[in-house]
Design goal:
Layout (H helix, E strand, L loop, with lengths): L8 E4 L21 E2 H4 L1 H6 L26 H9 L1 H4 L11 H7 L16 H11 L5 E2 L3 E11 L2 E10 L2 E6 L5 E4 L5 E3 L5 E3 L3 E9 L2 E9 L13 H13 L9 H13 L5 H8 L6 H9 L3 H14 L13 H16 L4 H10 L5 H4 L4 H12 L19 H8 L6 E2 L5 E2 L3 E2 L6 E2 L17 H11 L4 H15 L19 H13 L4 H9 L2 H4 L14 H4 L7 E2 L2 H12 L12 H10 L2 H7 L4 H8 L3 H13 L5 H13 L3 H13 L6 E2 L1
Antiparallel strand pairs: 1-11, 2-3, 4-5, 5-6, 7-10, 8-9, 10-11, 12-13, 14-15, 16-17
């Protein structure tokens, strides 16, 4: 396999240190340091010995317990060398050591099966360690500072960066690192870093060593793409470049009326009225979308729609779906979001209020446990789940248990001060009872200014410390609203092992969002005036309905159903009347049954002065009635086959009002009305 087949893009790695392993500046050779945590613990983790299904379980297996994911090297060292009188190590005859005989099944049964072969790397490393006297550490102290995943002729090589005394050392650790592919159907990787391309598409190769992760991208094009990178819109240039690399063609732009309907639903939560549709059609084609967008984002309807979206980003449910005893609190929060949108406040200003303002803090202060509060703030403002670190250091996450507890300490409630007033609270580590010293999550190396209160320090960390995770989180969520799905699936789970579909698109939007001071309107306008937003949902091959690469890589968009609240609002807008009744269920099937059987549509059609009655009063001719009915409900004219079928029914009916209202009900209940294409 040639490097042309493995097209790689470096995305995340540690800082390169230009000193080779085993040498010092000037070329003087030196004896490498040894540390159990860096040579033996990785073997236990890679072989699965310290997994939750094996000796890493809470009680161990067969009387032998290791720390989960080899997270506690000192404890594992003592278990292997000292527990039960040190019977697992035979210093006189290292090959007879139980730690080698069981996993290689040489005369001793092992429920875990054969893990090591006598001639493989892991076995040899363990044997040599025992032959050296099974030390915990030898030579100078060394600290692991990061890892790199570098291309090699047939895959990748993993290098670890160490600080050994005053020297920076780069050491190859490929056979000690955990290696994994994100998509085995595209590429697989073995323990030596060899990559085998299996099919077209993109896959990330992940490496884990110690507490550090690195990743690189491999790609095999689907074909030869004719798409160019000369688009005027910056977002489209990045999008086209990615499609060109993948060998994919973008779908054609959506038809004008579908695009207008999409814009109205996404920006103001409803379809366009017939008058608005006519006005859009009269605009010059080259400036139509920009003019529509500028009109819509200046309306109070836009404020209401995106106040609700921002509330959802911060896990505030829409009105009517509050949990028990949460109604008053969430009502105040929803009003705060609405006021912020009305004032045209930035997303950063709104987030600052959530972190520092007494009203905004109700979003998380109702949680009594500081750990729950910390996880909420990390999840909503940074798009990061840190919950796994509450219990242990997880191999697929960057956060440690200690970092989780120290971050949680920021969220402890104030307590009475000895001289009166209040002082900072304390958070006691549940297992040990010791006090956790507040410390921010390690995102960047900046230190907060002195003298800030805990909540102000949190706001500084999220918004002002220089890390772009807040921007990345918000950009990804807004993309999810406007494109139907986010670039990073699970928008609250931004981690190195959960990359976005197109990292360059995210990077571009993050850069603009930061430069625009987190202005939501500018971000929305930038996205919806692109061709990426306008691309059609119709597949080039009608046999392709889901799961195809065009959908996966945003070469086209997928039609999506309206949410229950969007659907009800749309029906009320089309009919021009408020419809009382229970909220629509969230399940698509239950929602469709509710629409058909609950009388929701009929209630609107029977309301006095509804828009369908008005249309029939002003348009007595069946042909005009049919056209205006379609424009009112579906924001388009009837197709030829629809005209040929329904027009005779309207003309032949003795009283065509009933037929017209039945047709209106059918259109309102149709899949076309209930979806966004």
């Amino acid at each position: 396999m040639t490097m042309r087949c493995i097209r790689t893009v470096l995305v995340c790695s540690a800082v390169a240190i230009p000193v080779l392993a085993g040498s010092e500046p000037g070329g003087k050779a030196r004896e490498p340091a040894f540390h159990f945590a860096h040579r033996i613990s990785p073997i236990l983790a890679k072989a699965g010995c310290s997994a939750a299904e094996c000796h890493g379980t809470a009680t161990g297996q067969g009387g032998f317990k290791l720390s989960l994911f080899a997270d506690n090297p000192r404890l594992d060292y003592e278990s292997i060398t000292q527990e039960l009188g040190g019977r697992r190590i035979d210093y006189a005859s290292p090959t007879n050591s139980l730690i080698l005989r069981k996993p290689s099944r040489r005369g001793v049964k092992h429920k875990g099966g054969r893990i090591f072969q006598g001639d493989e790397f892991a076995y040899r490393e363990l044997l040599q360690w025992i032959e050296r006297g099974a030390p915990y550490r030898e030579g100078q102290d060394e600290t692991l500072t990061g890892i790199e995943l570098r291309p090699s002729p047939d895959g990748f090589t993993v290098f670890a960066n160490f600080q050994v005394g005053s020297h920076a050392v780069l050491r190859e650790v490929t056979q000690l690192a955990l290696l994994k592919s994100s998509n085995e159907q595209v590429a697989s990787v073995d323990d030596l870093g060899h990559v085998e391309m299996k099919g077209p598409g993109e896959s990330w190769i992940f490496a884990r060593y110690g507490k550090f992760n690195a990743r690189q991208l491999v790609r095999r094009p689907f074909g030869v793409s004719r798409v160019t990178e000369t688009a005027e819109h910056p977002l489209d240039r990045v999008w086209h470049r990615h499609l060109h690399q993948l060998g994919l063609e973008p779908a054609q732009p959506a038809p004008p009326k579908i695009l207008v309907r999409r814009l109205y639903f996404d920006l103001v939560g409803r379809p366009p009225s017939p008058y608005e549709l006519t006005r859009c059609e009269q605009m010059p084609v080259e400036s139509r979308v920009a003019r529509i967008v500028d009109q819509l984002i200046s309306t109070s309807e836009f404020d209401r729609v995106f106040a609700r979206h921002l509330g959802e980003f911060f896990e505030i449910p829409e009105a009517g779906k509050d949990a028990k005893n949460a109604g008053q609190r969430n009502t105040r929060l929803r009003k705060m979001f609405q006021d912020a949108m009305t004032r045209k406040a930035s997303v950063a200003e709104l987030t600052r209020r959530v972190l520092t303002d007494p009203v905004g803090q109700q979003a998380w202060k109702h949680l009594s446990d500081p750990r729950d509060r910390a996880e909420y703030v990390a999840r909503t403002t940074l798009g990061m789940r840190i919950g796994c670190a509450r219990c242990h250091n997880h191999p697929l996450d960057r956060w440690t248990n200690a970092e989780h507890l120290q971050f949680s300490a920021y969220f402890s409630d104030p307590r009475p001060a000895p001289g009166g007033g209040m002082m900072a609270g304390k958070f006691f580590v549940p297992e040990s009872g010791t006090v956790a010293v507040p410390q921010l999550l390690p995102l960047g190396n900046s230190l907060p200014p002195d003298g800030l209160a805990p909540e102000e320090t949190l706001a500084w960390f999220v918004l002002d410390s220089g890390n772009t995770q807040f921007a990345r989180n918000m950009v990804n969520r807004v993309l999810g609203v406007l494109l139907g799905r986010p670039m990073v699936d699970l928008p609250d789970d931004h981690r190195i092992t959960n990359p976005g579909v197109s990292e360059p698109i995210l990077d571009l939007l993050v850069d603009r969002f930061v430069k625009d001071d987190a202005d939501l309107r500018k971000l929305v306008r930038f996205i919806v005036t692109s061709r990426l937003y306008a691309v059609s949902s119709s597949p080039p091959d009608e046999d392709k309905v889901s799961g195809d690469p065009e959908l996966q890589y945003f070469a086209r968009r997928q039609a999506r159903p309206l949410t229950p609240s969007q659907y009800k609002n749309a029906v009320e807008f089309v009919l021009g009347t408020q419809i009382e009744g229970p909220a629509l269920p969230d399940s698509p099937l239950a929602q469709q049954l509710h629409i058909l059987n609950s009388g929701l549509i009929q209630a609107g059609l029977n309301a006095p002065d509804n828009h369908v009655d008005a249309l029939l009063d002003f348009q007595p001719q069946p042909a005009e009635q049919l056209v205006e009915l379609y424009r009112l409900v579906l924001a388009r004219e009837p197709r030829a086959e629809e005209r040929d079928y329904f027009l005779p029914l309207l003309r032949q009916a003795k009283e065509n009002r009933g037929v017209a209202k039945d047709l209106a009900a059918a259109l309102l209940a149709s899949r076309e009305f209930g979806s966004l294409r």
